[in-house]
Amino acid sequence: MAIPHRASRPGLLSTSVGSHRDSFGITEWSLLSAIALIWGSSFLFMTVGLEAFKPGVITLARVGLGAATLALFPRARASVDRADLPRVLLLGLIWTGIPLTIFPIAQQWIDSSVAGMLNGALPVASAVWAIILLKALPRWRQALGIALGFAGIIAISIPELADSSATALGTALVLVAVLLYGLSTNLTVPLQQKYGALPVLFRAQLAALVFVTPYGLLQIPDSTWSIKAAAAMVPLGVLGTAIAFVLMATLVGRAGATRGSIAIYFVPIVAIALGVVVLDERIELIAILGMVLVLAGAWFASRKEV
């Protein structure tokens, strides 16, 4: 008598390819643009928050606001199989809880320009994790696009890096966060494809909230009250922690972790544009060259996977 075959469950660390392997269309470019616009301003809001709040308070505020925002969507409360909950909870720790705790701490010892450049390594980290988990190399177009994009990030950062300061500890903390982000984008792909972004991220951010609450409460007495800093937490939590994560999960579910993560390459471009428009800053020639490289890299990475 033949024994029925039971489909094996995916491991705790697993990923899959994107559901949309053709060239990016309007949906993918729209998701990418919205992510870049929201996260491009996050470092600014974080800097404003640090004027009054300790890092743990900032993380607690943004994760709490993020989870509360997602709770407003009925779809977020849709069921998730019990077998997948460990991966969802792990995602909450490594995509939200730990990195969002790390970044405000690191920005005490590292300039935002350095943090932005290091954060730009996310597509590289995502590609490395995808190679490990899928046991396959990215297509040549995607590999070339990632390389060009990261070269562009370095070029964009050069003018500010010349006057920046960074400690080894601050740099190491950001790199740890980026490695966790790269793993997170890969773990998100099959979960998003199975359940959609909202149910996964709502549970993930609740897990992150449990993780960050003790540290945040401990740092409240050492913080001061500021309306300006408190106001900065609203877009940081509602947009940067709730909406942008949903959009990013949707993008990587469609395009895969490697291609979807190129959205991060556009974050410094948005930050520079805000500096020019709001603060009347100058753009260096090498930064313009960097933007061209980023656009070229994004074009190659967004092509059909063949």
Provide a brief overview of the structure:
The chain has 306 residues and is mostly helical.
Can you describe what's shown?
The chain has 306 residues and is mostly helical. The chain has one domain. It is built from 13 helices and no strands. Helix 8 crosses helix 10. The chain is globular, with a radius of gyration of 19 Å.
The major sheet is characterized as: none
How would you classify the quaternary structure? single chain
Overall pLDDT, averaged?
Answer: 85
Q: How much is the radius of gyration in Å?
A: 19 Å
Enumerate the spans where pLDDT stays under 50 for 5 or more consecutive residues: 1-7
Report the β-strand fraction as a percent range: under 5%
Helicity, as a percent range: over 70%
Given the C-alpha coordinates, what overall shape results? globular
Number of helices: 13
Secondary-structure element pattern, one letter each = HHHHHHHHHHHHH
Structural class, judged by helices and strands? mainly alpha
Distance N to C terminus: 43 Å
Count of distinct strands: 0
